[in-house]
């Protein structure tokens, strides 16, 4: 049995950040992961370039049962601090859009940076270790297929349930449950939405069509691209709204933001009465979508023969299309898990469990889920930093 000051379960974004800080504070840290390599989700993130933070990070861009919980950690480890680390390692980066910062080169640079910082603090990282048991008696004892380890502090950092193919498991959730911590309901988020019936019939042939739009649900509104897929809708605006969506609830799409679609269709009718509706619509929307909407919503006649009322009605629909998804593409396609370990059980300063001395939970396993665009990594860094300063 080898003893450490802290054992971190999960060598992902949050776990590595926690280990590097604790190690650099002089703690003897062990990080255990069942995957062959550390940071596997970082490696595939941002299309291989890792959208490692967002300069617009504010607590309002995170979903949680307690929207105040993330404030403390986010304010004590900011995007500017992570960026300073990136620059210290001479990693070239760029802002893509909406405050999203990416590596110019490869996500591998972020993983290498974190590993180098862990090494500088003397943290030991062991991958390819299957955790077989975790028990608590005078500290924590972790059993693995490569031996047993003990420490007075244990950090749960095995992430969420998304992409099980990549090795995502519910280990942190299971252990939290075992140690008596409450959980909030979990579900896939930042995930494509599926449709059925007539709506799917309309959407399926449009697979690949993308356009700028605004997706709305309640008070949430995301002006970004929408993409039609063979199962329904995806694209950044849809991924964003999926985190707010619950079964049976319609979302609203504005396919022509800032335009008066009804007026434009009426103007087209006056200017070119013999034109077909799909031609007029194709001046506003991608051609395949225009064709499909014209076929579905306007009778098969020239513009002059359409009533003004029908044109206005279609115009209004294009600005506020009510759509009820049948479901999501699930954890197989979700970028993150919504919900997790209830923040009421944790200190927002240190991520320590209030009722289990030495136990900490960080990253996606906690009920804090960011918007698309680098927010989830920023939460992983910030919560990892907070716990790394406490263990
Ligand atoms: P993370 O998943 O990073 O790490 C958990 C670690 O625990 C893994 O190394 C895993 O192998 C290990 N583990 C799991 N179960 C275990 C077990 N039973 N035993 C031992 N080890 C175990 N976010 C963002 O901000 N910008 C982006 O560009 C992207 N892009 C992106 C793309 C894709 C395809 C996905 C799926 C996700 C993203 N994300 C993202 C989200 C981001 O990857 C995610 O929120 C963070 O990685 C969460 O960090 P954690 O450290 O909590 O978990």
TrEMBL record:
<dbReference type="InterPro" id="IPR055178">
    <property type="entry name" value="RsdA/BaiN/AoA(So)-like_dom"/>
</dbReference>
<keyword id="KW-0274">FAD</keyword>
<dbReference type="Pfam" id="PF22780">
    <property type="entry name" value="HI0933_like_1st"/>
</dbReference>
<dbReference type="InterPro" id="IPR057661">
    <property type="entry name" value="RsdA/BaiN/AoA(So)_Rossmann"/>
</dbReference>
<protein>
    <submittedName>
        <fullName>NAD(P)/FAD-dependent oxidoreductase</fullName>
    </submittedName>
</protein>
<feature type="domain" description="RsdA/BaiN/AoA(So)-like Rossmann fold-like">
    <location>
        <begin position="5"/>
        <end position="388"/>
    </location>
</feature>
<dbReference type="InterPro" id="IPR023166">
    <property type="entry name" value="BaiN-like_dom_sf"/>
</dbReference>
<keyword id="KW-0285">Flavoprotein</keyword>
<dbReference type="InterPro" id="IPR036188">
    <property type="entry name" value="FAD/NAD-bd_sf"/>
</dbReference>
<feature type="domain" description="RsdA/BaiN/AoA(So)-like insert">
    <location>
        <begin position="187"/>
        <end position="336"/>
    </location>
</feature>
<dbReference type="Pfam" id="PF03486">
    <property type="entry name" value="HI0933_like"/>
</dbReference>
<dbReference type="InterPro" id="IPR004792">
    <property type="entry name" value="BaiN-like"/>
</dbReference>
